């Protein structure tokens, strides 16, 4: 009698172990994104170049337009936008645009994405160095428009991303290093 | 009519003052002229040839802009790279890294050109009103090694006077007059230009003639400068720089990546990339001895990088780099540059295996922190 009670428990344990091993280690419960992918930036930082490498390594093909405008989004055919979040004065200078113009472009782009049903995955991979007055303007503008956010932990030391994502009920995953951001990014795709 | 006349000083007083001036000049001149002697650089096991920059542009031959170019040729097929130290002679991690390369690196594939004193004239003087020491000493394995601590710019003894506004020749960009003596605002240079433009032209000519694949300009910046602990890359070099940044992260070294602005002209990462086929990059580390917030500026600050005023600035959130009681020692700064160079060349080799640039004989970042810089000299 005692033995027959133990058997289901044992069986449950045996089934639970592989399930636990296969469990998604990230906050994003299920993949949300579809290809084709458009890679862009909000803040014109060179972090977008590192996202190219991460996407290449994850074998995710993408179109790249660092200054894509709302009007051009439909023509790209993208079903997902991957966006590098964070400001760079050198990058904005190189693009010849002001922070205000960049914020306006982002606002219109995200509104168009919502209208077209395009998912937005935001990544902040620049750590502490990609925070501060300039970058934080782009963080606060971009994060609430995302469907999923990945942050390199050092960039969230003050909990800004946690706060913004919690307020907008956006899944947020934190990774220790830039190189670790590729895995949750790849797992976000169906 | 009465006039209010003053009695002019007599001849003896004037002669006395003149004699005093001459005496001061005689006393100061030897140490001033000694600054013109290039620091000793030992030819390391990888050096196959020592040439002069004037070999690529005779217009600077024999002048104070001419400088040694160390060639480290593996003798094996591959690409080529140029490392510039001493573009700014008050940024010691740049020229010390170049000297470490010359004295220790062993090329395994391709060819390396190293210029430790890119703006040789800038090593002959210090900046006015900065209270900087002229030299600093590192206790090396083979005895004490003394190095000059110079200026950001060419000496006025070699290029004078400064215009009110410096107009960059090929773009028409306007900068403050003193920037006319800044090598990193003079690229791509001109054969018939100023002293500094001729040096820039010679470096550009070397890159073209030797078909240099990758050029890295080693710098330092004050901790309050936004672009620091970073690689600045020309757009063609961006992928290689990105891979390098990710590879450095694997080794626990956090480094930022910044694009070379297309509208900021005269800089190595912009003009060398535009004027030649080279992948142009620049690296920065944090050097409190050139910062505006620093306190006493002495050898200890140059070498240890500890400054209570920078600790205060960090606490106030005014710095763009981590900064604590350990400061920003020269071992850490040179270690970052060495690790950065290795990562860049490795990334380039990964991208273009037929143009491999590989070298050995250098310590890792962690090894250098443990042993100190002196062991390499």
In words, what does this structure look like?
The complex is a heterodimer of chains A (190) and B (377). Helices cover 47% and strands 15% of the residues of chain A. Chain A is of the alpha/beta class and 190 residues long. Chain A has a 6-stranded parallel β-sheet with strand order 2-1-3-4-5-6, with helices on both faces. In chain A, helix 5 (99-116) packs parallel to helix 6. The radius of gyration of chain A is 19 Å and the shape is globular. Chain B has one domain: Aminopeptidase (3-Layer(aba) Sandwich), CATH 3.40.630. The longest helix of chain B is centred in the first third of the chain and has 24 residues, at 11-34. Chain B is globular and about 80 Å long. Classes of the chains: A alpha/beta (190), B alpha/beta (377). Chain A binds chain B through residues 44-47, 49-50, 52-53, 88-91, 93-94, 96, 126-130, 132, 154, 177-179, and chain B through 226-227, 229-230, 232-233, 238-239, 241-243, 245-246, 249-250, 254, 256-264, 320-322.
List descriptors.
heterodimer, A: 190 residues, alpha/beta, Rossmann fold, six-stranded parallel β-sheet, 8 helices, globular, B: 377 residues, Aminopeptidase, eight-stranded mixed β-sheet, 14 strands
Low-pLDDT runs of chain A: none
- Taken from the alpha-carbon principal axes, the silhouette of chain B is globular
Strand order within the widest sheet of chain A?
A: 2-1-3-4-5-6
Strand element count of chain B: 14
How would the blueprint of this fold be written?
The complex is a heterodimer of chains A (190) and B (377).
Chain A: H1 2-22, E1 37-42, H2 47-57, E2 63-64, H3 70-76, E3 80-85, H4 89-95, H5 99-116, E4 119-124, H6 133-142, E5 148-152, H7 160-168, E6 172-175, H8 182-187
Parallel strand pairs in A: 1-2, 1-3, 3-4, 4-5, 5-6
Helix pairs in contact in A: 3-5, 5-6
Chain B: H1 11-34, E1 49-52, E2 68-73, E3 80-84, H2 92-104, E4 106-109, E5 111-115, E6 135-140, E7 143-148, E8 165-167, E9 174-176, H3 195-209, E10 214-221, E11 230-233, H4 238-250, E12 256-259, H5 268-275, E13 279-286, H6 299-304, H7 308-315, H8 330-351, E14 358-360, H9 365-371
Parallel strand pairs in B: 3-5, 3-10, 10-13, 11-12
Antiparallel strand pairs in B: 1-2, 2-5, 4-14, 6-7, 8-9, 11-13
Helix pairs in contact in B: 2-8, 4-8, 8-9
């Amino acid at each position: 009698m005692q033995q027959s009670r133990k058997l289901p428990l044992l069986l449950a344990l045996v089934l639970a172990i592989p399930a636990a091993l296969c469990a998604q280690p990230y906050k994003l419960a299920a993949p949300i994104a579809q290809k084709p992918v458009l890679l862009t930036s909000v803040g014109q930082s060179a972090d977008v170049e590192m996202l190219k490498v991460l996407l290449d390594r994850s074998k995710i093909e993408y179109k790249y337009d660092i200054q894509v405008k709302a009007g051009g989004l439909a023509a790209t055919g993208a079903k997902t936008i991957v966006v590098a979040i964070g400001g760079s004065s050198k990058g904005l200078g190189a693009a010849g645009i002001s922070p205000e113009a960049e914020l306006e472009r982002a606002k219109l782009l995200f509104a168009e994405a919502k209208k077209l049903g395009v998912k937005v995955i935001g990544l902040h991979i620049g750590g502490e160095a990609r925070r501060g007055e300039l970058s934080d303007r782009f963080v606060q503008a971009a994060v609430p428009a995302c469907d999923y956010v990945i942050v390199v932990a050092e960039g969230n030391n003050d909990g800004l991303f946690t706060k913004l994502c919690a307020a907008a009920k956006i899944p947020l995953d934190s990774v220790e290093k830039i190189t670790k951001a590729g895995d949750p990014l790849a797992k976000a795709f169906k | 009519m009465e006039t209010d006349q003053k009695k002019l000083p007599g001849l003896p007083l004037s002669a006395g003052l003149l004699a005093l001036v001459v005496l001061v000049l005689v006393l100061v001149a030897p140490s001033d002229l000694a600054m013109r002697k290039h620091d000793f650089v030992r030819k390391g096991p990888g050096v196959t040839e020592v040439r002069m920059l004037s070999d690529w542009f005779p217009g600077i031959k024999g002048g104070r802009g001419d400088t040694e170019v160390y060639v480290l040729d593996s003798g094996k097929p591959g690409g080529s790279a140029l490392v510039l130290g001493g573009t700014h002679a008050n940024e010691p991690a740049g020229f010390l890294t170049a000297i470490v390369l010359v004295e220790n690196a062993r090329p395994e594939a391709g060819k390396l050109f190293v210029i430790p004193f890119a703006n040789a004239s800038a090593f002959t003087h210090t900046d006015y009103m900065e209270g900087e020491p002229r030299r600093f000493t590192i206790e090396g394995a083979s005895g004490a090694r003394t190095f000059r601590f110079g200026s950001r710019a060419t000496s006025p003894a070699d290029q004078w006077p400064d215009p009110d506004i410096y107009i960059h020749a090929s773009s028409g960009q306007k900068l403050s007059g003193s920037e006319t003596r800044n090598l990193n605002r003079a690229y791509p240079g001109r054969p018939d230009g100023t002293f500094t433009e001729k040096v820039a032209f010679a470096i550009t000519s070397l890159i073209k003639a030797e078909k240099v694949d990758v050029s890295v300009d080693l710098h330092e910046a004050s901790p309050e400068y936004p672009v620091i602990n970073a690689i600045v890359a020309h757009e063609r070099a961006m992928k290689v720089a990105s891979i390098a940044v990710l590879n450095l992260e694997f080794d626990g070294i956090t480094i930022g990546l910044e694009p070379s602005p297309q509208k900021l002209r005269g800089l190595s990462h912009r003009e060398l990339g535009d004027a030649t086929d080279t992948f142009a990059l620049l690296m920065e580390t944090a050097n409190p001895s050139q910062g505006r917030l620093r306190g006493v500026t002495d050898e200890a600050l140059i070498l240890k990088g500890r400054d209570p005023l920078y600790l205060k600035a960090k606490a106030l959130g005014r710095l763009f780099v981590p900064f604590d009681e350990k400061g920003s020692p020269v071992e850490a700064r040179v270690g970052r540059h060495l690790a950065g160079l290795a990562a860049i060349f490795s990334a380039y080799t990964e991208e273009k295996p037929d143009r491999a640039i590989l070298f050995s004989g250098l310590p890792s970042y962690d090894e250098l922190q443990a042993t100190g810089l002196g062991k390499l000299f």
